[in-house]
Amino acid sequence: MKPPNIVLINCDDLGYGDLGCYGSQVNDTPAIDRMAAEGGRFTDFYMVSPVCSASRAGMLTGCYPARIGFGGYSVLFPGQAEGLHRDECTIAEILKQRGYATRHIGKWHCGDQPEFLPTQFGFDGYFGIPYSNDMGRQKEDDTHPPLPLLRDETVIQEQPDQTSITERYTEDAVRFVRANADRPFFLYLAHMHVHLPHFPPAHFLAASRNGPYGGAVKTIDWSTDVILDELRELGIEKNTLVVFTSDNGSNTRFNGSNAPLRGRKGQTWEGGQRVPCIMRWPGVIPAGTECNGIAASIDFLPTFAALAGGEAPRDRMIDGLDISNLLRRPDAQSPRDTFFYYSGNRLDAVRQGPWKLFVGRPGSEGPLQELYNLDDDIAESNDVHDKHPDVVAALTKLTEDCRKDIGDQHLGVAGANCRPIGRVKNPVPLTTYDPAHPYIMAMYDTEDRG
Q: What is the pLDDT of residues 280-306, one digit of tens each?
């Protein structure tokens, strides 16, 4: 049997409550809603960091960011010396070994030096802006290097017009899918939307009921529709798994929403890390289903590897689990019953089953313990710590074991099984500022680094 094609669509800062199929009343997402109706929607899906560089590195390697050295580098900046270590194994490398064509389009954010670019980690080709869309020139008196648009490892344009970026990304995705329709492929499309500043095309902005934010969401929806339609036209949709998710929760500015969750991007409340996740694979994933089991972005690597007839690396520790059983039977028991919430290198909380125990949060004075039952209290508004000492004791033991494994800066504990981040000498930005060049400035909203 031919292994499935895999399309992974990863949005930037899209919140749990930003899609119609997750309850939004202000953003129009007919294509994504239809994708959910034709496939499955996860209710308890987590990204492994509430901030983007660490989130993406963890997703690609199947590891908590602290394990691979990204705990202290939640956001990488242009020209920074750090990036994904070359010894790490990514989803793309595993699938390439199984004969897959691989391509990354869009935001990378795992290092912009040549040693850290996608083509060094199993991707046959790359087209995109390698970090956040606010990390360039946003105003006339800004002397930051302009945004680089890369093809593979070459800068082909500086500070491109961001209103057209999603269209260019989508066109590139269609070309890749068409060129590889007769062989297994892995497409990783990482949108710039809805990260600030917002650059929706004029026609999507005009049709939005939620200002520039809604226009950015509509742009994502249009792109998803184009890709799904192309799979149908090529007759390969029944052999293609499409996954739609977001790198972390919404920052909640300019009408972004994580409702009904508490918190936002950068926080370890549910709103920072529980994100939309929709999977569609006609004939395999039952249509219109909902999966309530705990799952996480680190589970993609072993899951995709298993679907391709391969396996996750055995020569190193990873944290992901194979959740392919949930694709065929969304009501099945998830192999994941525990999830750890890290803010940088600080272990903030653990979830097991419905219970979430906070053991520390940035800004708290010393150790902190709060307990929430997420089945009864999804908004984390009712601390029941004092009512369930047995649950607290069991979850506390889990955090102690986790600290020994990958560390906890809260308590000054170094993990025994952590690997280093990649690092180069004498890093330089991909572009330099030329005051004589007429760059395109930001049109909407303000910056939001990361």
A: 999 999 999 999 999 999 999 999 999
Using pLDDT thresholds of 50, 70 and 90, give the confidence band for residue 73: very high
Query: Whose structure tokens read 């986790």?
Result: 402
Residue 433 lies in a domain: no
Closest CA to 27 of 306, 338, 254: 254
Report d(CA 283, CA 281) in Å as an integer. 6
Please report the pLDDT score of residue 337 as a whole number. 97
End-to-end CA distance of the chain: 41
User: Where a domain ends, among 336, 356, 391?
Assistant: 336
**pLDDT of the residue at 138:** 75
Task: State the pTM of this model.
Answer: 0.96
Domain match, 392 and 410 both: yes
User: What's the mean pLDDT in 195-214?
Assistant: 96
- Within 10 angstroms of residue 73's Cβ, the number of other Cβ atoms is 21
Same domain, 319 and 204: yes
Average pLDDT over every residue of 31-57: 98
Q: How many domains does the chain have?
A: 2
Catalytic residue among 85, 104, 109, 144: 109
Please report whether residue 434 resides in a domain: no
Residues 30 and 77 in one domain: yes
Give the per-residue pLDDT at 434.
83
Q: 211 and 111 share a domain? A: yes
Say yes or no: 211 and 358 in one domain: no
Say whether 102 sits in a helix, a strand or coil: strand
Of 52, 89, 110, 402, the active-site residue reads 52
Give CA 368 to chain center in angstroms: 28
Residues 144 and 229 grouped into a single domain = yes
In terms of domains, do 352 and 311 share one?
A: no
Q: Has 52 been annotated as catalytic?
A: yes
Same-domain check for residues 322 and 260: yes
CA distances to 14, 351, 373, 383, 385 from 388, in Å? 34, 15, 10, 10, 6
Residue 350 lies in domain:
339-418
Distances (CA, A) of 60 to 55, 69, 93, 219: 9, 14, 10, 25
Please say if 410 is a catalytic residue: no
Residue 26 CB-half CA count within 13 A: 17
| Distance (Å, whole) CA 422 – CA 76 | 12
Tens of pLDDT along 333-373? 999 999 999 999 999 999 999 999 999 865 555 557 899 99
